[in-house]
Specification:
The structure is a single chain. The protein is an alpha/beta fold and 331 residues long. The protein is built from 13 helices and ten strands.
Length: 331
């Protein structure tokens, strides 16, 4: 498939190659006997395009759905999606699967393809999004779990990470990048921003590093099929509605709250076992209680000012992605 679609490259918005690619995808879906529909961009309010997208649907036992966005900008994107569809063509998965083969995604700053799809998307049930953004045939998949100013929910990051591990697919995730997403730092854009802004749980899957891949290490169809099998198994009761986006080093907000409460409780209980000093501690605390909010406010102000200064300096230097090369220096 990669070799075939490479003959129809590049695929600019509304070009002959893009139209031929959509025709080939539609033919393949017909051969698989998978339901699909094609939606044109020509009638979209506010702008005009000769492009379109194809949505393939495999109904599951549960109405909740995993929606995979497949931009036509990459041969691997298309080949990988068609391989997964072929794997499930005669199956009824636990959740419904939808694959959106998206044209015009490289048009404009706001990704015209995603903008148009979301303008016409009215969910009938709970759904999560996976976004393919592979530039080449990957050896390692990088998980992107947010965009400028917003993070993906922890539950989706966790199930994607687990499914990749169970499928034995090499993966990479930057904790520094996740922190910068929440800080809304410069240079941390991603392709899932529009989906997250509309409160749809989304994860972007992309290459860890763009390079000429070793043919023996390329992630092929079998591991990807296993990834989706494992991913579906992570949702035995459907898709949960929990938007915990405060996760660091692979642990969610609940874990850190438990650790924080435990440590705080130990610190508060400790003086009780030293009764001789307990009264003195309480007297000191009551006398200086007013200083606690002042101290916390000062710490917050210093951190906020520091973040603004770092972002401003990086913008002046025109090197907003310095954190990727030297995160310790940035922090």
């Amino acid at each position: 498939d990669i070799e075939y679609f490479s003959k129809l490259f590049p695929r600019a918005e509304g070009s002959v190659n893009e139209k031929e690619t959509l025709i080939a995808i539609a033919q393949r879906l017909s051969d698989y006997e998978i339901e699909f529909s094609e939606v044109s961009f020509e009638e979209v309010e506010g702008y005009h395009s000769y492009s379109s997208y194809i949505q393939a649907d495999i109904k599951g036992e549960n109405e909740a759905s995993i929606i995979t966005i497949v931009p036509l900008t990459s041969n691997y994107n298309i080949a990988a999606a068609l391989s997964v569809l072929n794997h499930f063509k005669n199956k009824k998965p636990q959740l419904s699967l939808k694959f959106v083969f998206l044209g015009a995604e490289e048009t404009g700053e706001n990704a015209l393809g995603s903008r148009n799809f979301l303008a016409n998307y009215y969910p009938e049930s709970t759904s999560v999004f996976l976004y393919y953004n592979f530039k080449s045939s990957p050896e390692v998949i990088r998980i992107v779990s947010g965009a400028d100013g917003i993070s993906s929910p922890y539950f989706l990051f966790d199930v994607v990470r687990t499914a990749l591990d169970e499928a034995k697919i090499p993966r990479y995730h930057s904790n520094t990048e996740s922190i910068l997403f929440r800080l809304s730092s410069a240079g941390t854009e991603s392709r899932i921003k529009q989906y997250l802004q509309q409160d749809f749980p989304a994860i972007e899957l992309t290459d860890y590093q763009f390079s000429f891949a070793d043919p023996d290490k390329i992630i092929e169809s079998e591991p990807l099929n296993s990834f989706y099998d494992s991913l579906l198994n992570q949702f035995p009761n459907g898709i949960e509605d929990d938007w915990d986006s405060h996760f660091i080093f692979g642990f969610g907000e609940q874990f850190y709250l438990i650790v924080y409460i435990t440590v705080l409780a130990l610190l508060m209980i400790f003086p009780i076992f030293r009764r001789r000093h307990f009264g003195w501690y309480m007297h000191t605390l009551n006398r200086n209680l007013w200083f606690i909010p002042v101290l916390l406010g000062s710490i917050f102000a210093c951190l906020a000012i520091g973040s603004v200064l770092v972002s401003t300096i990086l913008k002046i230097l025109k090197f907003t992605e310095l954190w990727k090369f030297n995160p310790i220096l940035v922090f």
